Amino acid sequence: MSTPTRPPRRPLVVDLSPLRASPAFARLFVGNTVSGIGTQLTVVAVGLEVYDITGSTFAVALVGAFSLLPMIVAGLYGGMLADAFDRRKVALVAAVFAWLSTAAIALHAWLGIREVALLNVLACVNAVAGTMISTSRAAIVPRLLPLRLLPAASALSGIGTGLMLTVGPALAGVLVAGVGFPVTYTVDVVLFSFAFVGILTLPPIRPEGATQRPGLSSLVEGMRFLRRSPNIRTTFVVDLIAMTFGQPRVLYPVVGAMVIGGGAVTVGALTASYAIGSLLSSVFSGRLGQVRLQGRAVNRAITVYGAFVLAFGVVLALTPARQGGGLLDGLESAQPVALAAAALALAGAGAADNVSSIFRSTILQAAAPDAMRGRLQGIFIVVVTGGPRLGDLFVGIVVALGVMWPPLLGGALVVVLIGVVARLTPSFRRYDAEAPTP
Questions:
Q1: What is the DSSP string of 411-436?
Q2: Closest to 380 in 3D by CA, of 366, 356, 360
Q3: What is the largest CA-CA distance in the chain?
Q4: Contact 302/414 with Cβ under 8 angstroms?
Q5: How many CB atoms lie within 10 A of CB 369?
Q6: 296 pLDDT more than 60
Q7: Helix crossing, 57-82 with 216-227: angle to 10°?
Q8: Cα separation of 294 and 151, whole Å?
Q9: Cα(156)–Cα(136) distance, rounded to whole angstroms?
Q10: pLDDT, tens digit, for every residue of 179-215?
Q11: Residue 314 CB: number of other CB atoms within 10 A?
């Protein structure tokens, strides 16, 4: 009697099989990554121009706030469109609007129109169109690849996102300082054109199964399906827990000014540490495709995330406060050991969050029936858009109540609440990637 052989261990580095298995996915991935770098370039450049016009940080914050509700609506409506019509056409129409709004932002700069209200409107149109592209693209990917390659595809998407969030803002700073706003926005017009390469070359992708016209009844049916789908619903719940109680980003300015020191340089280093951790976890994600109990992996990844957020809070609590510091202080004012420890904790949090994201995306794409994928992705957009903002509110409330370092409380809450959710959702703990069920 022969002994069954174990499947060979995959390499540690990211699995590139999705790029080889589906040229359509490869073109979509490259087009999305290059155009996404341009999008992040414009997001940063618009903020810089608004600040250049107004001198107000609040005015810069309003650019994102102005787009929040339209983005949520666009995610929900875009999901309904993706479940009713050819997803390639939905993505293509949205890409046209995104490109036109980018071109309009560039044109306004070339004409010297320094009008904040106009920038807010154009940035909002761009964000809405980008949200609809993302919703459609997420529903398209499972039609291009076999289920076994979806974790690798999610990891590749994490690398693409990491490149967008690092290269785009850095490029924006260099270009704005070197050649000004008009040329900077024009670079995005060129980069965003790559999105069309990935979308135009797709085959027609109509939803499989019964379809509904976009509207309230379609949205209600999507919500009813979600209520009957404990595994998919749990992916949303655990993400909300992580982002609501474990998102310390609004503390970075006070950490740089009054605790660790280093001013704005420390703020940038802490922000970059989280992104670098996320990017590295995607680069070394090759073996994640062998994980079958993906629900359990999500629970463990978010528990680790909470532990790293808690560790960040411990670093802050143990670091003596500085007197008279400010955001304009240089890096020489920073406490190097505390900065290194805080950056390491945030890198770990970013890595754990990304691992959770890889499996959560895989579960959503694999377990949802094709005719529901668009609407569920729309609801997912609401979760990922609203969660971090709830996290900002949590930090503000906790500080107002007199708790010195919210990450201490928040990180502990994440660990405890994920344990409670795991106990209450046995089907999620048993979720098997080889037999996906919603």
A1: HHHHHHHHHHHHHH-HHHHT--TTS-
A2: 360
A3: 80
A4: yes
A5: 15
A6: yes
A7: 90
A8: 10
A9: 18
A10: 888 999 999 999 999 989 889 988 898 888 777 788 7
A11: 17
Quote the pLDDT of residue 2: 44
Joined together, the tokens standing for residue 37 give: 């770098």
pLDDT of residue 324: 62
**Of the candidates 120, 362, 160, 364, which has an alpha carbon nearest to the alpha carbon of residue 279?**
160
Contact 358, 287 (CB under 8 A): no
3-state helix, strand, coil in the chain (%, to 5): 80, 0, 20
* CA 352 and chain centroid, separation: 13
Helices (H), 193-335: 194-200, 216-227, 230-245, 252-254, 263-283, 294-318
Domains and CATH numbers, the chain: 15-200 (1.20.1250.20), 215-438 (1.20.1250)
Would you state the structure tokens that stand for residue 378, as one six-digit string?
A: 């729309």
CB 414 within 8 A of CB 176: no
Question: Would you say residue 149 has pLDDT above 60?
Answer: yes
Residue 73 CA to residue 169 CA, distance in Å, equals 26
Say how many residues make up the chain.
438
Three-state secondary-structure class, residue 369: coil
Q: How far does CA 345 lie from the centroid of its chain? A: 19
C-alpha pair distances (Å), 118 with each of 48, 49, 72, 114, 353: 15, 12, 21, 8, 36
Q: Are 121 and 250 in contact (CB under 8 A)?
A: no
Q: Closest Cα to residue 162, out of 297, 319, 24, 273?
A: 273
**Cα–Cα dist 116/333, whole Å:** 35
Looking at the whole model, is its pTM more than 0.90? no
Q: Which residue has the tokens 């580095």?
A: 13
* Nearby residues of 4 by Cβ (< 8 Å), 6 or more positions away: none
